[in-house]
Amino acid sequence: MTIIQERSLLTDGHRLFRDTVSRFFRDEVEPNVKEWEKAGGFPAELFRVAARYGLLQAGMPLEYGGMGGDFLHHTILHEGHGFSVGGASIGNGICTDGVSYLFYAAGTEEQRKEWIPRFASGEAISEAAFTEPQSGSDVAGTRTYARRDGSDYVINGSKTWITNGSLCTVFPVLARTEKSSGGSALSVFIVDANAPGVHVSKPIETAHRGCSIENEIFFQDVRVPAERLLGGAEGVGFRQAMGVINNMRVTEAARFTAAAELAFDLTTEYVRNRKAFGQPILSFQNTQFQLADMKAELAMLRAYIDQCLARTLNDTLTPEDSSIAKLMSAEIEFKVMDRCLQLHGGMGYANEMPISKLWTLSRVHRIFLGTSEIHRMMIARSI
């Protein structure tokens, strides 16, 4: 079903980039996944390898070290994760481009020039440190606090579920800058990972049997110069971050859809070759109906995702659009994965089968970047 080949949205440049993404996962990721899984994570060197392929900041302007592409280049990279079993193992691990979009949207010109080229080269590794143990999807409930002290801010608090936390060299940290409530009191700070008072936990053990890394980060009296305030003023970084996150939800929805389509393709091949009662499983009407339902659901989902991508490109995407895309892609992906695993029978539960890894990873997609329940609330408010 390889979905990104026939899109009307794609230019020749997008297609060439798609081929590069596919080659990267085939040549650089797939052969090493088992070794990385045994080691408990992939190496930081993978970022520099991805940079040599031109993957990390394809959507960024040339003056910031990017390729001068657009948001669809960014999405094609994330879909590459979805289309690859190795991509499922590393999760969304090599993508620092989301942080670059945050810096591009919210940063001062000096901050853009300092950081985005370093992300593009793989020199700097970053992940947004927004999520907290007690707040999760409730960003306005952030407790990490930044107190002004002369020319510095002093940050105290903690973050969790930080992808590549132990590999990161810098974190954009969401913190409250005054004691009032709500988003207006929230700002984003650029914090060096090796700054005094920054402590990174051991990787969090998860149900997903891959080689992606998740950490907790603790900040104890961490001093950050005022010029490291993203956007140069309190509240600017947070307001811009919300817009970037809306776009990222569409990108992730595309990745979820790609992963579901990979599972569909793998399952179709499996039931065509696996025999039961002397005939291929595909010959059973139940199997045919299951595949028919999945194909129809994925076709409708893909059409909506592409509609949202088009709106992202012309800057007309609404928060409702991104919530619908995130909610339905995560829900449909898991339904597809579960039915695909069922059609594999007992073998579907074996670690050696790709569907097992895809199924396990798909479960968390209904939680991160806003739980399904949060997105239902957001959609309901727009009615």
Explain this structure.
It contains twelve helices and eight strands. The protein is of the alpha+beta class. Strand 7 and strand 8 (279-280) form a beta hairpin. Helix 8 (236-273) packs antiparallel against helix 9, helix 9 (285-313) runs antiparallel to helix 10 and helix 10 runs antiparallel to helix 12 (372-381).
In short:
By secondary structure, this protein is an alpha+beta fold. The protein contains 12 helices and 8 strands.
Write the layout of secondary structure elements.
Elements: H1 12-29, H2 33-39, H3 45-52, H4 71-83, H5 85-89, H6 97-106, H7 109-121, E1 145-149, E2 152-163, E3 170-176, E4 186-192, E5 198-200, E6 214-225, H8 236-273, E7 275-276, E8 279-280, H9 285-313, H10 319-343, H11 354-364, H12 372-381
Antiparallel strand pairs: 1-2, 2-6, 3-4, 5-6, 7-8
Label this structure with key terms.
single chain, 383 residues, 4-stranded antiparallel β-sheet, two-stranded antiparallel ribbon, 12 helices, disordered N terminus
Q: The biggest beta sheet, please?
A: 4 strands, antiparallel
* Structural class by secondary-structure content: alpha+beta
Amino-to-carboxy terminus distance: 34 Å
Low-confidence stretches: 1-5
Percentage of residues assigned to helices: 40-55%
> Which strand order spans the largest sheet, edge to edge or round the barrel?
1-2-6-5
Number of DSSP-assigned strands = 8
Beta strand %: 5-15%
The helix count comes to: 12
Shape: globular
Average of pLDDT: 89
How big is the Rg? 21 Å
Order of helices and strands: HHHHHHHEEEEEEHEEHHHH
